[in-house]
Each structure stands twice: as structure tokens, then as C-alpha cells.
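Give me C-alpha cells for this 485-residue protein.
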Amino acid sequence: MNPEQEHARVLTRRQLLGRSGLGLGAAALASLLSPGEHAAAAALAGDAVSAVPHFAPRAKRVIYLFQNGAPSHVDLFDYKPELSKVDGQGLPAELLDGKRFSTMTATQEKKFLKEITKFSQQGECGKWIASDFLPRTAEIVDELCFIQSMRTTQVNHAPAITYFMTGSEIPGKPSMGSWLTYGLGSETEELPAFTVMTSRDRQASCGQIFYDFYWGSGFLPSKHQGVKFRGAGDPVLYLATPAGISRAMRRAQLDDLAALNAMNMSRLGDPEIGTRIAQYEMAYKMQASVPELTDFSDEQEYVLEMYGPQVREKGSFAYNCLMARRLAERGCRFIQLMHAGWDQHANLDTQLKIQCEDTDAPSAALVKDLRQRGLLDETLVIWGGEFGRTPFQQQRPNSPRGRDHHPYAFSLWMAGGGIKPGMVYGESDNFGFNVAEKPVEVHDLQATILHLLGIDHQRFTKRFQGLDQRLTGVEPARVIDEIIS
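Here you go.
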């Protein structure tokens, strides 16, 4: 059997096209071997990424503090005095008409439940916030923009999180971080452009799972998927050089391996070979950069105290927030922190306060720390979950109070990166049940994030399965210009 003839016989259409001089393989290899020529290589390949950014960006990077399980907006951010007046009363039928809830409350009698926290007005902007549960966040309300008219189409956790992270409720599409690194590349060659860290509540009361597709690259080259830093042991596996292998020997091995991979790439045009080359190189650089990144000995004591007592505990939300700031300093494009524990169906009276204790100080400290280092204006910080919690009580026999999933109105906050500080956008009704004015859909939020990084969401596409795919999907989406400074 002739190997060349056998190879030609099984050659796929994709591989055949990739072997041409202007194929994906050539463009990808050019971008890997000479990052400065990325735009020219992309243009040759007919890649839409060559035109990004479309206009001057307001932000260079994103830190997304995603709160898995959905924080209760009516207990934390969206003060509704009317709830105290109707506490314990049944919801009117017209309010429930056509609404979907989880199977846990779909058939139960629904009675209003007032907030379990104490709200007060804070800052020069006078924002109402649960200052007893979120005292540190209350201190920085003048830095924040609260969106109180978010709504989503999803009522269960995994599809709702997937929708926020990828623009689709169905797993498999590229995540937001992948889209941004695909379009904008990286500011650093020493660390991944897209990093992910996860944490959870101390009591492990929430059964939420961190699925890999929350930071997957979908149909984009897999070098754009998020790199997850572990919360225990080495942040990334297999970074240490084996015993008996010097740094010079490892470099020589990688050079030879890259040459072999480059030969295959030019022959087959498979972009995943380009990913392999890039990931080997990144791993080599991370052997030097990650130990320095995770060494907090250069942090001043007042900074560590600002993030709270858990800042030295690997895998805690506080530790991850400080890591996020250090990653931002070093040029990471998209830093995704995911913290589970907000799914308070039957433990609202106990777990909500614990969650706030774990996340309040670190979240506020991150904003303060970025500001004092001159990084906040170019870093977009986002804090929020996949939906809110119901203004009515979830009733379980012999169980404490709780709230069910609520997609019809909820809150999140943003800071830095071109966002107007000290403002509230949108409003829910008197019960925090429906959006009353200025609704913000998930795709609107995504379009606004892209806009702040200099990207027109309608023009930022990738051809896949015969369609020009984009983060914001095919439904109409708009940039929320009113919150941009």
C-alpha cells in the first residue's frame, strides 16, 4: 500500500480545501508563528475577525463574577416596600397568567414574601440596597451601574447559565470569552487569554454543577476555550517539568514537535493542529508565569484584608477575586469566576446571609483594587446570576422559607470599562415580579458587552454549518447606550 495514495483516498473535503495556499491552516499557522501578522493572515483567509475591533473600545478586558443559582433580587438590590403590605397574601391571577416556574412551585399556592433583609439608601446616588447583608457593596454603589430590568427566557439553571454564557440555551455554542479571544486575541503571551475559576458555598448546600461547556469554544478553534484554574493543588495539571529534564531540553523538544505539527498543518489545514502548537507553547510559558501569578507574597497586607479572611484559601471566592485582579494586570482578556450556592429554595433565612458574607467583601474589593491601580476604566466588571428569585414563598412541608427561580425580572450590576457609575437602569413592578420599564434581554447585555470592547455584535460572525453565527443569535438585540458613559 502506498501511504500517499491511501492518504489522498481518505482526504476529506475540509482537508482538501485546507491544503490550498489561502486555507485556514496557512492563516492559523501564520498567526501562531508571527502574532503581529494576525490581521493580514486573517484577511487572506476571509475571516471576519480581521476587522475587529470595529471602533475604539472603552474596555480591554472583562471580569465576569457569575453567581450560579441566582441571587434574590428582591432581598438584595430591588427594594419593594409594597411586598411588606401584601406579605402572606396570595398573588392575583393576572400576575401569574401565562407564567412558567420550576416544577417545585408550578402547582402550589403562591403567597407573597417580603424581603428578609434591611434596605437603606447608600452613596451620593441614593441607591436602595440590602446594606445589612452587603455592607461592602453598599460602600461602592457610586461606582456601580445596577440593571434592575433584566429578564430571560429560561427557568432552569443549566440552560439559563448557558444562555448567558453562550447566547444559546443549548450547549455547544462558543462562550463569550471564546468569542472575545477569537476576535481580539490576547494582550499576553505568558498566560491564557481566557481563564476560568470556580468556587462554591461553604456548606455545599447547592447542587449546581460547573459544566465545561460554560467556557467551551464550540465551533471556534479549541485554543479559544477557557483554561480552568483548579481550586486545590497545582492550578493547572502537568505544568512541572519531569525530573531529569532541563528547561533547555524541554524547549528543544517543543521546537521539534512544533516543526512536525506545522508540517501536518500546512498539509491538512486542520485548525486543531494550530491549537495543539499554541497550547504546547502556552504550557511552556505557564511553567514560569503561573508560579509567579499565584504567589501572593508581594501583596500588601491591607489589600489582602480588603478581600476578606478567605483570601488565602485556594478555591474560595475571595482567593479567586484576587487572582482575577492579578490576571487582569497581566493582560488576560476574559476572566470568568463562577460561584455556586445561591439556589435557596428552602434555606433563604440562613444561606443567603452566608453567601453574602463570602462574596460581598471580595466583590467590592475587586472594584476598589482595580480602581486604585488605574485598571477599572479599562476593565469591565459584571456581577449577577442566571435569573432572580420569586417574590413569593416556595412552600415545602415542614421546611424553612425559600424562593423559586424567577426569570421575569431580576438585577445585576456592572462597573468600569465605559459604564456610567452610580446609576440604576430599568425598573420592575411594585412586587419585583415583572419588568415595568426599559427591559433588558440577555442578548442586549451581550451586545452591550461586545460594544464596550469595540465590537459591533451584528458584524462579529463566524461561518458555521452554512450560517453566519454570532453570540447574540438571530433575534433582535440592542446596545444599552443609556448605561455607557
